[in-house]
Amino acid sequence: MKYFTASDGLRIAFHDEGTGPALLCLAGLTRNSADFEAMSARLPEFRIIRPDYRGRGRSDRDQNFHNYNPAIEAKDAVELLDHLSLNSVPILGTSRGGIVAMVMAATKRDRLSGVILNDIGPDLEIPGLDRIAEYLGRQPASASLEETARNTEANAIGFANVPHERWIEECRCRYTFEDGRPRLNYDPRLRDAVLSSLTGDPADLWPHFDALDGIPVGLIRGANSDLLSVKTVEKMRLRRPDISYLEVPDRGHCPFLDEPECVDFIRRFLAQLGSSGKNR
Description:
Layout: E1 2-5, E2 11-17, E3 22-26, H1 37-41, E4 47-51, H2 70-83, E5 89-94, H3 96-107, E6 112-118, H4 126-135, H5 145-154, H6 164-174, E7 175-178, E8 181-184, H7 190-197, H8 206-210, E9 217-222, H9 230-239, E10 244-248, H10 260-276
Parallel strand pairs: 3-4, 3-5, 5-6, 6-9, 9-10
Antiparallel strand pairs: 1-2, 2-4, 7-8
Helix pairs in contact: 2-3, 5-6
């Protein structure tokens, strides 16, 4: 784990591994850099950069929870690229990470050479949002890693044919464990930030998606996702007929990205960027 200091003084943690073409990986709302460990192990030919957002993982908590928003997180991502002296990179954004990537396209598009969106689009489905709001900021009630894995598997809407060992690995990524009990690996005030952002009219993310015009885009969807609908995917593909698309069977929101078809999709997308000179 490495660290850099953001312009407002917060210390941001990140992993930077490998020596090949760079890929910046941005995790979901409550998640952290550990989400990409299994995928990274399957893509050894790339330099994988995976930060913990502020307030998540090993990064500093922000005293102002309103700073837990995609605009600030996009700013942190750009400052990380500055810290690493990277000009333009492809981004792999899972859920919230995809929104952050779209914000970057609207504000700092010269820093993006390509974007893969993992189970996220400009329209977010209410069932998925309600499910996230239900668990957001709440400590798990389970008393052990094994119990946590069983509960996570039982509540994983849309997932099938996932070995139990994979759920144990997933829980090790999601939580820290104290005396065997799981604890949130993020600032619980993230819940306040999200709920406060939902007051008033919902944000229109389509202009941010349209800001990706001219930037190669890949889209991965869990076939049973409750956050990204088939209808939204169809609208995205109408706006961007050149989009590369993968639907992953037996996955809800969101695919782990270590699935063989996901690894192959990511590898081919990045290889095409490399052959076009856009991954530098």
